[in-house]
Amino acid sequence: MASRLKVLQGQLNRIASSAVPPRTARPGDSVLVHCEAWYRTEEGAQAAELFENDEVVVTIGDTLGVLMPALGLACIGLEQGKSKAFRVTPEDNGHPQPRYDRNLRVETPTHGTEVTVGATVKIQHQGTVRPATVAAFNRETGTALLDMNDPLAGQVLECTVRLKTFDVNQPEVMVTIEEPSDRDVPARRFNLEVLRHYNGVSRSEIYVSLCGIVYDVTSAARMYGPGGMYHFVAGHDASVALGKFKIDPTLCDKAWEGLSSAERQSLAHYVRTFLSKYPIVGKLSAPLTP
Asked: Which of 31-40, 167-176, 192-201, 251-260 has the lowest mean pLDDT?
């Protein structure tokens, strides 16, 4: 019996030694990752909400996009399900808010309201509602010193990335963009001129269109509202911008049918997220043009 077990163990060892090593990410791969980032303040670590559900499709080797190329470089060598920590400094390309402007500090009356240093408030500044951080509060004068810089401005970002899925850009795979059923889409129709008013500034509501379906993303004002990283898509169709994973206002309101397989996969991921998180308020009244 002992001899038989020894033979079996030897066979298992040979199988293990000849097994194919696990796949690791390399340049050119397009992968779905979970990425979280945070920065340090006097109150402790604060989360930086950079991606919807902290997930994003990354093509390793691309240089444009939030946290790129550092995010892509961090993926190199990762196996599926494995994680890696990396850091993005204000000097690095891809930092969402690299510059801290000391001139963006204003003093304003609080009209008897007690405010907490470090709290985030909203203020009308130069015709736009913007978030601000309370830098100081003078109870005697009833004024607060507000820092109008984005909270991420000039911050070192500590990040972790976990690889979820390989091969999201296989050209032979036709990527299907999920569509809501007709009964789930209200009858309301928007042309682009009307949609632009729903940007959190002209109106308090924030609407974003994906593939012609208009969503109410007001609940995610920190991302899509004034001062948010993705405010440039508020009041627009964001299909091409999010599909290409680029912070580029010129990509708004463009037809998305010409996106590559990898870009369609990224767009499909955003559509699934929007369908699960945000209410649909209508659709565009006409197809978009390239």
From this structure: 167-176
The pLDDT tens digits of the residues spanning 160-219 come to: 999 998 976 555 445 678 899 999 999 999 999 999 999 998 888 999 999 999 999 999
The pTM score is 0.66
Burial (CB < 10 A; 0-12, 13-18, 19+), residue 216, is: middle
Give how far the C-alpha of residue 97 lies from the chain's centroid of Cα atoms, to the nearest Å: 14
| Residues 230 and 158: beta-carbon distance below 8 Å | no
The residues, ordered by sequence, that sit 6+ positions from 127 with a Cβ below 8 Å of its Cβ are: none
Sign of CA dihedral 37, 74, 170, 24: negative
Q: How many CB atoms lie within 10 A of CB 101?
A: 12
Contact 226, 131 (CB under 8 A): yes
Work out the burial of residue 112: count CB atoms within 10 Å of its CB; fewer than 13 is exposed, 13-18 middle, 19 or more buried: exposed
The separation between the first and the last C-alpha atoms of the chain, rounded to the nearest angstrom, is 73
Return mean pLDDT, the chain.
85
List, in order, residues 6 or more apart from 13 with CB less than 8 Å away. none
**CA separation for the pair 100, 98 (Å, rounded):** 7
